[in-house]
């Protein structure tokens, strides 16, 4: 097969979809399946990104999420011979001469439409047509699959669940290495960690309220890793209203290869999202042996299993109690650390690539029926 993968977003936003695309391409290339992989990049190359050898790279002029994307992208693709186009960022070109596979990471924008900007709502609002148009749909979790069936009345025969995984670099580090990176990054001896884009569905305002409840007792700071997304202002307003000041440290976006140090240095990760299609930071933290507290909604129970503490994301008191329990109970932290490492090991990008390749073959076989 001649398989083209739309990787334009990797040059613009280093978020979850970009990480998914990078790791999937690397894993597909390592399978050596005999298929031709064609990487479609945008005008802006991905920073500090090394694509695997043997992958043909082509540059497109149409930026991702552009308002004229459905007009210009199909024209650009006419010159590229391909059997299948994989669109990891939900929305494929609706006019095309090849088979189509899309990945749907989550449907948060349908569950919580008020949490989107108008520009984002305009792009992701095409998801119903995208699911109907695609020959096959990859859902990154069973929770996302169920949302596709419930919210879009999608054809279940077209949907395959393919779990993501933590990258190979996420692992427990030796204590001496942890302390070296702690000093280099100027991180506290003990701190609570959050990793994710600053946007409403990540529920950071409730996390800050929960954190404020226990601050006086435990005196353990909160480190927030992630870029500012849409409608992020309420996060800083809440911090100021609670008088948290320097007790909450916002470090901004961190390169993927640096995240392992933050996970290893943290005493625990808190991910209180209102909705996650998969929840990769929880799995990355678990792979590093860092205990996690996550929401008991959407895909997070599916990913974490019994290897973390699950709480109601809308209940600040419950979240504060879970944090206090982890901070004070070393035996529990050690138990969850070991469970997390074991649980994370059941997910792999090699398996994800094999299952994705099977979806590609299924999509292309449909053309011969």
Brief overview:
43% of the residues lie in helices and 15% in strands.
CATH superfamily of the largest domain: Glycogen Phosphorylase B
- Quaternary structure annotation: single chain
What does the overall shape look like? Answer: globular
Q: How many structural domains? A: 2
> Which consecutive residue ranges, at least 5 long each, have pLDDT under 50?
none
Helix content range: 40-55%
Radius of gyration: 21 Å
Secondary-structure-based class equals alpha/beta
Portion of residues in beta strands equals 15-25%
**CATH topology name of the largest domain:** Rossmann fold
Strands ordered across the widest β-sheet:
3-2-1-4-5-6-7
Distinct helical segment count: 15
Search tags:
369 residues, alpha/beta, Rossmann fold, 7-stranded parallel β-sheet, 6-stranded parallel β-sheet, 15 helices, globular
Describe the protein.
With 369 residues, this protein is α/β, with parallel strands linked by helices. The chain has two domains: 2-164 and 348-368, Glycogen Phosphorylase B (Rossmann fold), CATH 3.40.50; 175-344, Glycogen Phosphorylase B (Rossmann fold, 3-Layer(aba) Sandwich), CATH 3.40.50.2000. The chain contains 15 helices and 13 strands. The strands form two sheets. The protein has a seven-stranded parallel beta sheet with strand order 3-2-1-4-5-6-7, with helices on both faces. The chain has a six-stranded parallel beta sheet with strand order 10-9-8-11-12-13, sandwiched between helices. α11 crosses α14 (330-344). The longest helix has 17 residues, at 349-365. It is globular and about 65 Å long.
